[in-house]
Amino acid sequence: MKIIQVLTERGKGVSFEFFPPKTAEGRKALLEVIKGLKVFNPLYVSVTYGAGGTTTDRTKETIYEIQTVLDEPVMSHLTCIGATRSSIRALLDEYRQKGVENILALRGDKPQDVEDFDPSKGEFKYARDLVEFIKKEFPEFGISVAVYPEGHQEAPSLEADLEYTRIKIDAGADFAITQMFFDNSYYYDFLDRAQKKGIDIPILPGIMPITDIVKIKRFASFCKATIPAEVEKRFEPYAESPEDMLKLGVELAIKQCEDLIGQGVRFLHFYTLNREDAVSEILKALVPTHFS
Ligand SMILES: Cc1cc2nc3c(=O)[nH]c(=O)nc-3n(C[C@H](O)[C@H](O)[C@H](O)COP(=O)(O)OP(=O)(O)OC[C@H]3O[C@@H](n4cnc5c(N)ncnc54)[C@H](O)[C@@H]3O)c2cc1C
To answer: Cα–chain-centroid distance for residue 129?
Structure first.
């Protein structure tokens, strides 16, 4: 089933994003995490994809295994940087046979760990090209795209980024998921600007609980997501204490989600980092009826 249909029918709920573990043992552990999170009745779950095809097999394996324990749709992220049409076609053909019907269409970034990677050998330039390709050759697939409340790191301006986003969505995206943000005003402002541009698909907020401030700071600075100074300051006393860091990260994420729900947001997409503890604590604290 296309995820947009699930969003429309259920009207509210949560989704979870995972990365593909490196080993069979890791995948087994992930299935336990997913079984634990099933009580929150997810709308769908998604699995990331290494740009340049660096995790194709692992992403596929992970998705097929999740399908054995979950009835809800499992969406594959798919990057097109450096990819040929025939390689994407082969993957989507396989997905069709395996009942994977939803794709988060992305450009991706040049992989750091592939020395001779040459994006110019690819046949897609932007995510929009991948959206157009899927729409044309695999119209039965549901398509989502990534959006950036604070602007994408390469974009010359917020306005230019939003215009490219509009074009990407108009090419055939059913819904969008945001880059992580830690100050909800960026998201509200983005919704406002998107609406003025005529973008009317659901835009799901991407929530990243801060379970490790050092790692998240590094990642956030790469992808231009602001961590407010007062948030960073609150983590300072806990640099050496993972438990306290987790506790504070959960507390802040609960506040963030409560604010979103209070403003009428009906869907929350969690970057789980393959952990059950943080998301589980957050969702237990949110009004249970909101997501049942
Ligand atoms: C929810 C989410 C999930 C993600 N999952 C993954 C994943 O699984 N694997 C992974 O490798 N990465 C993932 N990413 C990261 C993503 O691949 C990077 O952010 C990447 O840099 C951009 O991908 P995109 O699909 O947004 O690109 P695009 O939409 O193609 O945009 C890339 C840049 O090009 C600009 N642009 C677009 N069109 C034009 C044009 N016509 N002319 C000039 N400039 C243009 C945009 O403004 C932007 O700056 C994810 C990001 C998000 C938010």
So the answer is: 19
